[in-house]
Amino acid sequence: MTKKLNSKQLRKTKPVGDEEKEIKRNPIYFVLDNVLDTYNIGSIFRLADAVSAEKIYICGDSEYPPSSRIHKAAVGTEEWVAWEHHDSTVKLVKKLKANGVFVVAVEQSPKSIDYSLLPSALKLPVALVVGHETNGVSKEILERSDLIVEIPMFGVNKSLNVWGSLAIVTYKIIESL
User: Fold this and answer.
1) pLDDT tens, position by position, 38-85
2) Are 149 and 123 in contact (CB under 8 A)?
3) Is 17 domain-assigned?
4) Phi/psi class of residue 75: alpha, beta or left (left: φ > 0; alpha: ψ in -120 to 50)?
5) In what order do the strands lie in the sheet with 26-33?
6) CATH number, position 160
7) For residues 175 and 134, what is the distance between their CA atoms, to the nearest angstrom?
8) How many angstroms separate the CA atoms of 50 and 3, rounded?
9) CA 30 – CA 42 distance, rounded (Å)
10) pLDDT tier at 4, thresholds 50, 70, 90
11) How many helices (H) and strands (E) does the chain have?
């Protein structure tokens, strides 16, 4: 697809026919494990569009489209990116793994590796899991992940915003494609 839309156009434009299916997608899935902030969810739609991710899975008690708050942050990209809502992140991750998807949690953990080492350990297709803004990725998902990566923090703040962390890790993967 050669069409490029600015934010004003995106807010008012929806795909026509199978237009969104014509976009060449990267073998990357985003899994939102109880992400509650609609700004994060909308920003993740923008990120998914920017990197041409295959799909977003919104799990748990997260809000999902149609939502005016998600739409505001997504600037209409929720119309262009495939997504599904699932009640259970655990069931979804089991299904993805059964279909050969490599699951990477983005979380601080004693088992995590530095995100910069990700390309050498990566297998595609890949699902990147991010979690609740306060509680992070659930323990059940961390236990089922093939790999856990984290972004080093050098200041007083312990962590980055959910969508920001996902963006850093995703672009690291894009570099290796």
Assistant:
1) 999 999 999 999 999 999 999 999 999 999 999 999 999 999 999 999
2) no
3) no
4) left
5) 83-86, 53-59, 26-33, 126-131, 102-106, 147-150, 113-114
6) 3.40.1280.10
7) 29
8) 13
9) 13
10) confident
11) 7, 7
2 lies in some domain: no
Which amino acid is it at 119? P
- Is pTM beyond 0.85 here? yes
d(CA 112, CA 169): 13
User: DSSP states of 17-72 as a string?
Assistant: TTGGGGSPPEEEEEEEES---HHHHHHHHHHHHHHTEEEEEEETT---SS-HHHHH
User: Structural domain tally of the chain?
Assistant: 1
How buried is residue 11: exposed, middle or buried, by Cβ count under 10 Å (0-12/13-18/19+)?
middle
Phi, psi at residue 156, to the nearest 5°? -80, -25
In a domain, 152, yes or no: yes
Domain range for 107 is 24-176
Rounded to the nearest 10°, the torsion over CA 139, 44, 103, 160 is -50
- Block residue for tokens 């803004």: 133
Is 3 a domain residue? no
